[in-house]
Amino acid sequence: MEAYFDHEKLKVYQQAIEFIKWCNPILKKLPRKLAALYQLDRASTQLTSSCISFRFCL
Question: What's the whole-model pTM score?
Answer without folding.
Answer: 0.70
